[in-house]
Amino acid sequence: MRIKQAHAIKSTEITDQSVYIDRRKFMRQAAAGAIGGSAALMLPPQALAGTKLSGVTKSAYTVEDDLTPAEDITSYNNFYEFGTGKGDPEKNSQDFMPKPWSLSVSGECENPGNFDLEDFLSPYTLEERVYRLRCVEAWSMVIPWVGIPLGPVLSQFKPTSNAKYVAFKTLHDPERMPGQKRAVLRWPYVEGLRIDEAMNDLTLLAVGLYGEELPNQNGAPIRLVVPWKYGFKSIKSIVSIEFTEQEPPTSWNIAAGREYGFYSNVNPKVDHPRWSQKKERRIGDIFKRPTLMFNGYEEQVASLYEGMDLKTNF
Predict the structure, then answer these.
(1) Is position 134 within any domain?
(2) Residue 209 class from Cβ within 10 Å (0-12 exposed, 13-18 middle, 19+ buried)?
């Protein structure tokens, strides 16, 4: 079998978006007709059947947009560790066991160590935040993530003055993550942020959505959410956090550096080499809408990039 390299894969080869959206609309309309009239349209979008999270508080960082139904959030995913098709993660992650789970913290900090996930999270209160999460295929969702702000977590490890960046790594286990048996990307998946980006109040370590534990296909048991950046920056199933002095490598920049920069901020003024990023389509919508600078979070994050050429530092 000939396996294409990541830079040669087009989004249209993975899944045709119009087919997906049309199928979802047909299913919803059919369900509405079966249940009966306008009452069906008022059903809540929550459709998960996982473990409820306790101690969740409402965050101030919310948006008023309608939430994306949970069935869409959990069935239309990019998670190449379980396959390159949008439906592959849901199908291929059913047997993945995200418990027990541990994380290592290392690098330029005073308090490195290895931690069970429960101990890692125990000092913090979970918050629910609604984030508009866009991805480079020009589709987006509105997801009620549940998690904890990353900044206070990182502060507990006392990063030194040499810590300029934070690097993250996904679990590498081809037996549990069958997509890693194919050389689509260089495994394990790695990502990174500048430390001031990591410390920003919007940056989240997510452990759930819709008040329940993260489904496997959405990055269980813990993932990053950086809502002003394109979705591939929000690394899933994290097992390693490292404070570094140098800019860390990132998976999509390694695979196709001309197309995917280290920063990958949502920016309608910077086109992807193969498509425009001026507009995006939210899942369930027929028409595209203008892409907002920094995904609508310009007020909160623009100061991070003051004086930078965002076309060069894309």
Answers:
(1) yes
(2) buried
Q: How confident is the model over 18-31, as a mean pLDDT?
A: 41
Q: Which amino acid, 137?
A: E
Does the residue 19 lie in any domain?
no
Q: Yes or no: say if 207 and 221 are a contact pair by the CB < 8 Å rule.
A: yes
Q: Is the pLDDT of residue 225 over 50?
A: yes
Eight-state DSSP code of residue 51: P
Buried b (16+ CB within 10 A) or exposed e, 109-145: beeeeeeebeebbeeeebbbbbbbbbbbbbbbbbbbb
299 CB neighbour count, 10 Å cutoff:
8
Give the span between the Cα atoms of 109 and 166, in whole angstroms: 11
Whether residue 242 lies inside any domain: the answer is yes
Q: Map residue 40 onto helix, strand or coil.
A: helix
Domain tally, the chain = 1
- Does 314 reside within a domain? no
Q: Is the dihedral of CA 12, 68, 262, 207 positive or negative?
A: negative
**Residues paired with residue 168 on neighbouring β-strands, in sequence order:** 191, 241
Q: What is the pTM of this model?
A: 0.85
Q: What pLDDT was estimated at residue 50? A: 82
> What pLDDT, on a 0 to 100 scale, did the predictor assign at position 48?
74
- Please provide residue 289's backbone torsions phi and psi, each rounded to the nearest 5 degrees: -125, 155
Q: What is the pLDDT of residues 124-172, one digit of tens each?
A: 999 999 998 876 556 899 999 999 999 999 999 999 999 999 999 999 9
Pair of tokens at residue 24: 């979802």
Q: What is the DSSP string of 185-213?
A: SPSSPEEEEEHHHHHSTT-EEEEEETTEE
Contact status, residue 231 vs residue 136, Cβ threshold 8 Å: yes
Q: Give the CATH number for residue 137.
A: 3.90.420.10
Domain that holds residue 84: 46-305
User: How buried is residue 18: exposed, middle or buried, by Cβ count under 10 Å (0-12/13-18/19+)?
Assistant: exposed
